Amino acid sequence: MSKKVTPKSIDHSKWYTDIILKAELADYGPVKGTMVIKPYGYSIWTLIKESIDLKLKKTGHSNAYFPLFIPKSFLSKEAEHVEGFAKECAVITHHRLKTDPNSNDLIVDPDSKLEEEVIVRPTSETVIWSMYKKWIQSYRDLPILLNQWANVVRWEMRTRLFLRTTEFLWQEGHTAHSNEIEAKKEAIDILNLYKDVSENIMAIPVLTGIKSEAEKFAGAEITYCIESMMGDKKALQAGTSHYLGQNFAKAFDVKFQTKNNKEDYVYATSWGVSTRLIGSAIMVHGDDKGLRLPPKIAPHQIVIIPIGKSDDDVKKILNFFKEHIKNFKDSGLRVLIDDREDLSPGFKFNEWEMKGVPIRIEVGFRDLNNDQVTIARRDTNKKEVVSISKVNERIHNLIDEIQISLFEQALDFMNSNIFEVNSYEEFKKLMSENKGFIKCGWDGNSKTELIIKEETKATIRCIPFEQNIKNKKCIFSGKPAKFEVIFAKSY
RNA sequence: CGGAGUGUGGCGCAGCCUGGUAGCGCACCUGGUUUGGGACCAGGGGGUCGAAGGUUCAAAUCCUUUCACUCCGACCA
């Protein structure tokens, strides 16, 4: 394995997988499309997860767990939902293996065929709604605000580490409400929660809005989304929140009695973000030296590298710096001391840069003798010398600075690559040159959207909440625009 | 499912055209010298060459079949 990653500018896709493998975030699993999330990658996921979980708890949601297996018949209860997921379901048809007496191979025992086949959940709406039917009778049972952390399986044709794997980890929220207003508010509140996590925890700026008919979740009335721009100017859907209306309630016959003793179907939402978020962090922040992690999701926020010639030297150095390390840890910072003897400082510098550690503190005799340390920041790749008395203050400021600077770098990049265009010619030219997101008018017709997709590979990523369609025309048909939309090529 | 590519020690590859019994770099082990941007020297261990069949005195190499994975498309969080 070569030491460096393929430069972004040469092959973005190779660059991306190089980083994942070399930063030890994940590895390929033995079955096509599967991924092993390695400890370092899983630590990042854990930090993301904890931050989302905390926010969900604060907004009144509880965690629960529903089964991995779903009766096949459940999937077909909601028409659009089947349509959306049938093509990518793993199906369990048997429950036993046996040794073939002829070949001595392990084979599926034909006698173990299941009466009703079982599918592996591609998402859990259907199992959950089958349970809601049991649990909901009256408006007093509502709302139900559940979330589950789970794995799901979608048998994709083409997979990519973190972005699209056959099995992935996510959180899926499923709420039930007694009225439309409350349910819609829930979907939007969650969207804002996702935006908050993405921007303030992961330092990834997002556009918010709703999905077009063609792009919305199978079974939803409205799909709200957060959409972000990757380093190659392609769009990535980082999270979605759906207002499901009464679709699933009708499909699963979940009714409740209202205050006025009338009967109504339950209103619902569902929403999720997945390990895909890690993929977006890589593509938004990474550079040719590797990962750049925002401090809030960095497993190690600070790595300390003692530079000495002998064990004794290293001991002296660490002793000199001991109080500071204790202070950092006491204030909640995640600090790692890399005192591995067999590796040179240069090797360690490169390794931790690959892994995206925001701050590196180098301490050697040169520093010790001058009552100082050398601090290297990953966001700018700059080094500075800081006097020992100022270290604590400087580090705390830097943690915040780096978090903000990564967000601002990403925001500038996104904003400078969103273009407003007025002609389809210009649209096609920009798209073919891979120039980024295009903001333009759209007549609201799904056919228009489809033709544009076929001709340019760009899709409507979102219909932003803020609309300005005065005098705007549809980029394709020239008809008066119904919406102002964002087009882009996407992952 | 279409197109392309790759399967050779843990990883990355060469060898294949023109058959002669496997090599390089990294990693690993031992010892020593090193350490402020991927250290060096010496010694050492590890591979039925993806699988099956065939041709041949002889196959990593030629032929046939097959499997797997990766990348690019259609599908998707």
Describe the 3D structure.
The protein has 491 residues and is an alpha+beta fold. Helix content is 35%, strand content 27%. It has three domains: 46-285, Bira Bifunctional Protein, Domain 2 (BirA Bifunctional Protein, domain 2), CATH 3.30.930; 300-397, Anticodon-binding domain (Rossmann fold, 3-Layer(aba) Sandwich), CATH 3.40.50; 418-488, 2-Layer Sandwich (Translation Initiation Factor IF3). The protein is built from 14 helices and 25 strands. Strand 22 (418-420), helix 13 and strand 23 (437-442) form a beta-alpha-beta unit. Helix 2 packs across helix 6. The two termini are 27 Å apart. The chain binds one RNA strand of 77 nucleotides through helix 1, strand 13, strand 16, helix 10 and helix 11.
The CATH topology annotation of the largest domain reads as BirA Bifunctional Protein, domain 2
Kindly provide the name of the CATH class of the largest domain.
Answer: Alpha Beta
Q: What share of the residues does DSSP label as strand, in percent?
A: 25-35%
- Count of individual domains: 3
Give the strand order, joined by hyphens, for the main sheet: 3-9-10-16-13-12-11-24-25-23-22
Report the span from N to C terminus.
Answer: 27 Å
Task: Report the uncertain regions.
Answer: none
Task: Please state the structural category.
Answer: alpha+beta
Query: What profile does the largest beta sheet have?
Result: 11 strands, mixed
Helix content: 25-40%
- Structure summary, number of beta strands: 25
